[in-house]
Structure formats: structure tokens, C-alpha cells
Amino acid sequence: MGSMSDAHDQIEVVVTADPDGAPVIVLRGELDFATAPIAEESLAPILQTEPARIVFDLTGVSFLDSSGIAVLVRSTHQAGTVAVRNPSTVVRRVIECTGLDETLHIES
Amino acid sequence: MSLSSGGGVVTDMARGETSRVEGTATTSEAAPPARGETPAIAARHTRFHRGAAVVALVGVIVTLVLSLGAASLNTRNERRLLRQRAREIGLVSKATTTETELPLQAGVYVALGTGGNAATFRGLASLVVGPSATAEYASASLWRLTGATPVQIATVGQQQAIAHDSPEQLRAFFSKSTGLTPRISDLLDATPRRVGYLVTSPGTTPAYAIYTETNLPKNRTAKIANDQAFSDLNYALYLGKKVEDAKLLASSAGHGLTGHLETAPASFGNTTILVAVSTNSQLGGSLLLRLPWLLAALGLVLTAASTFLAERLIRRRESAEALAGALDVVATENARLYNEQRSVARTLQHTLLPAALPDVGLEVAARYVAGEVDVEIGGDWYDLVPLPGNRVFFVIGDVSGRGIPAATVMASLRYSLRAYALQGDSPDVILAKLAHLLSIKDDGHFATVFCGRIDLQNRRLEAANAGHLDPLLMADGQVSFLDTQAGVPVGAMQAPHYRLFTTDLPAAGTLLLYTDGLIERRGESLDVGFSRLARAAAKDADAPVELLLARVVSELIPGGANDDTALLGLRWEA
Fold it and tell me: N or C: which end of chain A has fewer CB within 10 A?
């Protein structure tokens, strides 16, 4: 009956800040259909402040699907600039194939 | 606001598993088989379980064995102690009889020495004869045996049993003498009950004899009854070797003994007396006496406790089994409902997809592979619209998220696309217009869309890509992905710009469009998926489009995909 709560469906969300004060959301795990709501819940209070800039540190993210991308894209409507920091080649490719590599500023 | 509603959909999905578990709990009460179980369980509880009964039985048996063992041990110990006491009393009796013999033997020697002096005898006898209880003898007489008939020289004390005997009887009586060893006469029938002692002087023809009688206590109570050493014993002395009331000399209780006896013989003159003892209390101490009862009590308590425990454990296990059974029923029911729900969702989705592809002058085939994992439908779709001027419009897309909301967005996009396409808009314009209809901010969804127009007359393709994976072109034995420079997905941002991609098509070729479920795998780059698709497609490049799609699906997602997957194949011939 489904395997949505499999071990790989885990996401860890840690919020830090850049020297300029921009919130940095450090994600670790897989950002997908199962974990996107968790990430979104952690994000909500930060996005409510409508920050000028927000950074997603994707160093520890091994998988990103369209639900994960939706999390990133949705944040662009509340934050001034959204940057994606250090995505793996796998994740970077997903962002590129979705035509979002310019909307989500990739920093590596 | 709709952001949260979109989030809500996703969240519901993510909780799918949880809510099904909750559903389990509620359904368990509603499920008739589960309800049917309950009275059966109650009925089973009214009787004692066999396991508990076995525990009880074993407990009782063990208790019994232990108690009986302890009791037997105690009995054996008691008997051993009793035998020991009997022997001790035998020894005491022996000493007592020796005391009795000595004055008689001394008297015979004195008679020999004094020539049967009557006065001397009387003097001696008066020391040990008298009516008092402390006196050894009730009577004593001295006889001369040298004549034809025994002659009484002197007598002291009460009248003796032989006082009126005829000369023959006297001769017969004295002839049975056993010398210095007293010959015991059984006068237990006489009144008062007494015992006679006959001692004759040594030698083959004895010269003198002393005959004494001792009265037995009237109540037959022995003098040593109060002796501390034997206070815990009942004892009786019998003349002879048998326990026989008529031969009772004396006893502690004044009558013969009953119950368990231990006996020890003791020599008494020429005969024997039997010492019999029984206890009037526990010899081995009270603990040993109580031990069997203690063991029995303790054993029964432990048995009761373990029986109770066993019964409880068995009942608990039974409830667990019953619960598991009920849960099984619920799970089955749940699975059925799940499948039913899934089938309803699938039916809905298929009604949103084209029932049959129109004849557009191409060999076309489409395939929709439902995700294995979830009941919720995906937002994948494809469509094909014939356009005037020997042209055909095609689209493949994927709305983010799942469930009815995603399907609804998909339906609205699909019909809008058809309208714009029929209106004659070019693919880039169509995507830009679509972007006005959908916003992730308001609707919670975005969509990746690839759409294009093929001009069959001029073999020309115009296309636009909103965040979708590039299609695969197969021509002249080559496979390649079109490099369409994808723009952002529809709904990702406001007023996006989409590039129009145009290319000349080969005279004959196949265009394969698909959604990400086909190539996306955890832990690997999309490029690996692209290569896999290219290889699989190349292998069956010449197969009919329908078969090509089937082969690609079975090659790339043999076990079924996690995500929904849509494929659309278009082939034109030279």
C-alpha cells in the first residue's frame, strides 16, 4: 500500500543566514513529492517576511522532482530574489531542463 | 490564499499513508467481520483456557508431590526417632529389671550363708517389701528345696499366689526354676494384677528359693510416666513379645497403645518384655511437621498465581490475534476501497485524455502509464489537434502536484490549448497566453508544456517549450533530442517570454514526446535517463509507433513508474 514513507523520503531543513542577512535554507535529503510539504511548512514563516533575497543551499539534496521545483518556484513570488546554491549536477540538470536556471539564480 | 490551498493538496497527499491508517481504525468498527469477531472472543473468555488448565494441573501435581515427599520424609524421620526412643526405653527397662534381680539373688546367697535363717530373711525382705508404692515387692517368701516338698521358711507381705498350692503344684512350680535368673510368673489375671519372681540358689539341686510378687499399678500407669526424658512419648510395657492388652504391665496412659508403634524387646528374667512407644507430639520439631503443609500452601498459591498469569497471557494473545484478524479484514477492505478509489480516479483521468487520437495524416500513438505508488492521479496529458492547411498541432504537458486539483488544471490547460491552437496562434504565443491562466502563486500549480505544429506539406516544425523535457527525433537511423531552449514552466512566473523553435524535418521521421516519469530516476542525472531513452528508441526505431512506445515503456519503466508517465509518438512517412 504505497511506499511514501520510505527511508529515502526524508528532508532536513536548517535555516541560517548569509552575512548580508539573507535567509539561507539548507536542505538535506530528497526534495520531492513526499517531502515538499515538509520543506514548505518550514519555509512559510520565512517567506511571510517577504525577504529581498533568499538562498536555497542544495548541497545536500540528492533528488529534485517537479514538486520540489514547485517549492523553489513558489518562493520566487514572495522573495525578491531566489538563489540556488551549490546544486549537484543531477539537481542542476533538472533545473536547467525545466528552463528555470535563470529564474532561480544558480550559485555554485 | 490559493498558495495554501495548493499546499493543502500536496500535504493531503503526503499524509495519504497516515489518513489511510486512520481510516483503518474507523473502518474496523464498521467492518461486519470485525464486529462478528467480538462475541466469539467474549464467549471464549468465559471458560478456562487449556493452557492455563495445564499450568494449574502441573502446579497442583508438583505441589502434591513436594508436600507428600515432605510428609513422607517427616514420617520416616519420626519413625526413626521413635525407634531410637523405643531402644532407649528398652535399655532403661533392662537397667530396671537388673535392679529388680539383684536383691533376690542377694537374698538367695544370704539364705545359703545363714542356713535358711527366717529372721535374717524377714529383716532383709522388710527393706524391699511393703504396701507402699515405693516398695519393690508386695510380698516375698523363702523356701527350702532340699526335701521332697518345697517348704516355706518365711513369708513377708501380702498373701502370695502359691500360698494354697498343693505339694505337687509347689514341686512343679519350683522345678521350673531358672536358677539365679528370675523366673517370671504371669499373674496378670490375678487380683491384684501382679508378676511373680522366682530365684533359686545356684547348683543343679538348689537348696533355697526366694519367691516375690510385685503388684502392678492398679491403673496400669507406669512410674516413669513423668520422666522428663520420655515426656513426649506414649509407651507401654507388655510381658512377652507381643503387643497384647492382656499382657500390659504398665503404660504411660494407663491403657494399651494404638496408632503407629515402635517396639523394642528387653530381657526380663527368663522372659522378655516388649517396650512399645508412640508419640504424643512431634519428635523432629514442629518445622518438619508443618513443612508439608507449608509446601502445599505455598505451592497452591504459586499455582493459582501462575494459572492466573497464564490465563491472562493467553487472553492477551487471543485479543492480539483477534485484533490482528480484525485488522486483516480492515486492511483487505481498505485495499479494496483503495483500489476502487484508484480506479475511479483513473477513469476520471482517462475521460480527460483524448479517447482516440484524430486522424491527422500521421502515424500516431499515445500511452499513459499510471504511477504505481499512489491512488492520486497525476497531471500528465497529451493532445493532438488537426489544423487546416495540412498541419497538426500536438502537445504534451505535466501539471505539478497530483490529485483532482492537478487534473482540473490539466483539463483547463488542455482545452485552452486546443482553443488557442485552433485560433491559429503559434506555439510560443500559446504558451505565453497559457501563462496568464495559471500561477503557482494563486493556483499552487505550474505546468511544463511542450507544444508544436507540424506543417506536413513543408516538413517543418514550429514548437515552444515551457520547462518540459526535449522531445526525441528519430530519423535516418539516428536519434537526437531537439534542443528547444526551454523557457520557464507555465505558471512559474508572470509574463514569461517563450522562444519559438523552428526546424526543418527530414522527409521521414518520428517525434517522441514524453513526461519526466519516463526517464527520471532517483540518484542519477537526467542525462543518464536521456541516453537510456535514446538507446531504447534506436533499438526499435523501425517498429510501428504503437509498438515502439510499448517497447520503450517496458524498457525504461519495466516495474511501472513511481510517477505517472505520458508518451506521444508522431511518425510521418516520405
Answer: C
